[in-house]
């Protein structure tokens, strides 16, 4: 996303390949370079580098003017610190940690609990759970319908086939995350085979809501892989408290019937403060590249909540406004000439217009 | 600027009054609060606090989500560091240091050198030189016309009346800045009475271009007050080197006849990299609040070059995008409803439209 946005903004890009899939990175880089050549972009507009420890040199290099990053909270924070301490500080757009809460409303569980269980399980295990927007916590209101749903989701998650992850490091992190959950006294394991061998096993846990309300670290941390965690709240007041206890996230999802959504309309302003994208009756995995997309959110989901790494709004990350005062029309580029030869829609004295300026 | 922008973006503001003009600050705050009451904005939307050392507590307070600042490079850097080290880091929009280079082209000096000297002196001493966009360095190409211009500017600056600055601290800083220039071996004093008493004396200096080319600190630092510094370059190549040696600035100004501007069109891409606003045949003091204004620039002029503190674009500083996916039309605010009841121009599937969505 950031590479496409930076190129669209006219910036050359230096890309550090992930050590876990270097051959894939090389294939993608070659495709980008071929495309750049075919479209006659300047030579050197895209560069990929390989190696451990080269990130630091890159972030500190004076020619680098912005950084995009996806990865761990520690890694992202370290990059932000380095960038802020440069002689000339630069922005870092880091996507670091998101557990993407899903709120299940009572009417939907009553009307189509089993379908929701199937769909939600599908979203959790999609691509072995290796999506930033993987639903990592599922919140429901205590009720017979939610209890039935828990059984249904347990069955769904228990019947998932193991999956191969992107690389061995990812599998190691996933196994460690699962162990932490298994060993936590406030967390119950509901489904999933022991995590052993070379593939990731889908897992389902249930945690006491007090862990979330008391700021337990484990419930704020993303376990990157095919796992999710159920939380049961006693009533609407506790649902509100639980959502407010969440840190910044990329997404929040609300599953509800029309009557649910009217009744729980008060969720929206709470979720707006917490996330970059709010979904209704959908699942957060799958991200459309379009004008309306926001794939960002408050810290620690991202280091800079004012943008997105996916969608056309991402181009703004790599632009800096420059104002020309009293420049001769003849010395202005076509986009700014009075005659508007490119027929652009422009803001002229506060009014949008695609007409020439008289 | 930032207060107006934050309010326009829907954010409440806590403003720390400058200790040098507290009564003025109180008058302005009262006016803002009266306006907020008359327009029925929520109570507490604007707050002013007084006192030394309260800034740190403000920047670190979890309810504060962004910081605007105008002041010294050291002060701004310290705030940026504090904000970056918060448990939840927040953006700082600091405007810190700018010497606003003015480039005088040969044709203009030939055609109207005396007028330029008068106008430029007026810009340097306007408001006792207390503007972020005060022209702090004036660059010209060695020639008889430039030598004559130097004499004319020397006469203009020498005949300025002393002026009262905003506060005693500002006068102390100005006196110290003037002393540094007077004591530098590479800097010649051309005009200005000794800096003594309670008012600021306008001063004119000339510095050897080598100071700029070798990165001498003194030539990069803003002297906040009615003073400016001439630099003579040998030729176009040295002009280019001198401009490239400048750090980030708020503005750059080019004074030239039409033939000059065509011949020196190559200046534009260099200046674009260095500043937020480029002026032709105007002077950087006076800033219009409008859609096109950019009152920002690369570090150290500002801490975040992607924005502006003056003009409507400043509102973006205080906004964060949120995407709603599959939200019921009935639960959307009027601005987003399909019928477009507010008649807004909206980006719909990539096309601008003020029509209802079918």
Automatic annotation (TrEMBL), chains A, B:
Keywords: Oxidoreductase
Entry-linked InterPro entries: Ald_DH/histidinol_DH, Ald_DH_C, Ald_DH_N, Aldehyde_DH_dom, Aldehyde_DH_Superfamily
PANTHER family according to UniProt: ALDEHYDE DEHYDROGENASE-RELATED, SUCCINATE-SEMIALDEHYDE DEHYDROGENASE, MITOCHONDRIAL
Keyword ATP-binding: no
Protein name: Aldehyde dehydrogenase family protein
Entry annotated with the keyword Oxidoreductase: yes
Pfam families recorded: Aldedh (PF00171)
Domain Aldehyde dehydrogenase: 3-287
MF-aspect GO terms: oxidoreductase activity, acting on the aldehyde or oxo group of donors, NAD or NADP as acceptor
């Amino acid at each position: 996303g950031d590479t496409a946005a930076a190129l669209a903004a006219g910036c050359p890009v230096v890309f550090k390949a992930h050590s876990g899939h270097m051959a894939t990175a090389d294939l993608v880089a070659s495709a980008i370079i071929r495309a750049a050549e075919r479209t006659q972009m300047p030579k050197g507009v895209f560069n990929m580098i390989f190696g451990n420890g080269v990130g630091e040199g890159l972030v500190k290099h004076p020619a680098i003017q912005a950084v995009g990053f996806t990865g761990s909270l520690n890694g992202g924070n370290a990059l932000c610190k380095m960038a802020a301490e440069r002689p000339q500080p630069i922005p870092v757009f880091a996507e670091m940690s998101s557990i993407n809460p899903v709120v299940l409303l009572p009417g939907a569980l009553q009307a189509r609990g089993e379908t929701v269980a199937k769909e939600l399980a599908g979203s959790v295990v999609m691509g072995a759970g290796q999506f930033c927007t993987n639903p990592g916590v599922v919140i429901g209101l205590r009720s017979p319908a939610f209890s039935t749903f828990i059984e249904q989701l347990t069955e769904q998650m228990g019947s998932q086939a193991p999956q191969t992850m992107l690389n061995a490091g990812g599998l190691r992190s996933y196994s460690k995350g699962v162990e932490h959950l298994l060993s936590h006294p406030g967390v119950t394991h509901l489904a999933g085979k022991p995590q052993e061998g070379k593939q990731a096993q889908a897992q389902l846990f249930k945690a006491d809501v007090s862990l979330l309300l008391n700021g337990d670290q484990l419930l704020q941390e993303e376990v990157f892989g095919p796992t999710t965690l159920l939380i049961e709240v006693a009533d609407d007041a506790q649902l509100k408290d639980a959502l407010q206890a969440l840190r910044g996230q990329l997404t929040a999802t609300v599953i509800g019937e029309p009557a649910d959504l009217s009744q729980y309309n008060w969720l929206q302003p709470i979720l707006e403060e917490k996330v970059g994208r709010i979904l209704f009756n959908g699942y957060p995995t799958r991200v459309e590249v379009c004008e309306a997309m926001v794939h960002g959110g408050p810290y620690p989901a991202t280091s800079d909540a004012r943008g997105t790494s996916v969608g056309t709004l991402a181009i703004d990350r790599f632009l800096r406004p420059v104002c020309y005062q009293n420049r001769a029309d003849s010395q202005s580029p076509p986009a700014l000439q009075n005659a508007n030869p490119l027929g652009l829609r422009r803001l002229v004295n506060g009014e949008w217009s695609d007409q020439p300026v008289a």
